[in-house]
Amino acid sequence: MKAVYPGSFDPITNGHLDIIKRSLKLSGSLTVAVLNNVSKNSLFTADERVEMIKASVADLPNVKVEKFSGLLVDFMKKENADVIIRGFRTVSDYEYELQIAHVNDHLNSDVETIFMVAKNSYSYISSSIVKEIAKFGGQISDFVPKEVERALNKKYK
Ligand code: PNS
Known about the structure:
- There is one protein chain.
- The longest helix is centred in the middle third of the chain and has 17 residues, at 91-107.
- The chain has helices spanning 14-27, 46-56, 72-79, 91-107, 127-135, 146-155, and strands at residues 3-7, 30-35, 63-68, 83-88, 112-117.
- The radius of gyration is 15 Å and the shape is globular.
- By secondary structure, it is an alpha/beta fold.
- 4'-phosphopantetheine binds at residues 6-8, 35, 71-72, 100, 103-104.
């Protein structure tokens, strides 16, 4: 299988990183696809997000990091990929994830979505929560890779 792990990654967290590592056990290689749609209000530019992910996965084999715009299924086609990896943490993620999976299945039924259940220890981390903690000067070192911690502290200085 050729797997893609898509997301906003604004910024990448240790929860995302755990999904990347565990996905590699399934697929052997992985493309992390960073959403670059202008309608989403992100703290970091797509290029900044890509760079932070690249730094965070530098020690992992066979991980590619790419930006994408437009529809995920079109990116999948361009990459010749057939599996979308998504992580979910809680029941509240489920409805959203189900909706995305059904939409993508409708748009291209050759593409499968595989869900990875987030480890309990990462189940309460999200990019938004990490940004909020950083914004008010809280400790985020347990939640994000080192380079992300540095970048967030710099943004909110
Ligand atoms: O990290 P996120 O924001 O939950 O990731 C959402 C993402 C990027 C997977 C989703 O918004 C996406 O695939 N957007 C691209 C546009 C698209 O294909 N939309 C139709 C399926 S929702």
